[in-house]
Design a protein that fits this description.
The chain is of the alpha+beta class and 179 residues long. The protein has 5 helices and 4 strands, in the order ααβααβββα. The chain has a single domain, classed as Double Stranded RNA Binding Domain (2-Layer Sandwich). It has a 4-stranded mixed beta sheet with strand order 1-2-3-4, with helices on both faces. Helix 4 packs parallel to helix 5. The longest helix is centred in the N-terminal third of the chain and has 24 residues.
Amino acid sequence: MKSLGARFRTVAIALVVYLAVCVGAQAARVGMETKSLRGLVGVCVVVESLAPDLVRDGLSTSSLQKTIAAHLTAAGVGMLTEDELSQPGAAIFYISISSVKNDAGLYACNIHAEVIQAAALTRDPKILTPATTWTSSTVGIVGAANVKQLNQTVADMADEFIKDFLSVNSKQQLKPKIA
């Protein structure tokens, strides 16, 4: 049976390979993903539940949500509630963090961000289905004492989304959310 250290090395190697693939995919992000952001009225931020050990070491879904919301709001991206997702131009900004912790207190993490929008099928445009239209991922290793630094990694991913969002939506188009 493999020791935890051997499993951690295997996971770390797999994450490095995954990163290499993701870097290629990120470089290949051409206009299609970015163009899909044109006309968005805003996003609802959803952070997937975190592994219990990440929470014990100080990371929280609420801190991640606040970090993302602060960056999006500062850039003029509308913030939506779950109830507002049915309106045209609404989307979900979704974050998930997968992690494995070794005995030395190091986490191997995969952080994934995506934008999910309603999309129509070309064979029948009346049928709408959720579709991921924008993605970003990163992998890394962080110590248990520093898991709060993952907030900055998530902020960087939100900034990447903002850059793409603003490239197809002018500041004049952005309207403040009306309560």
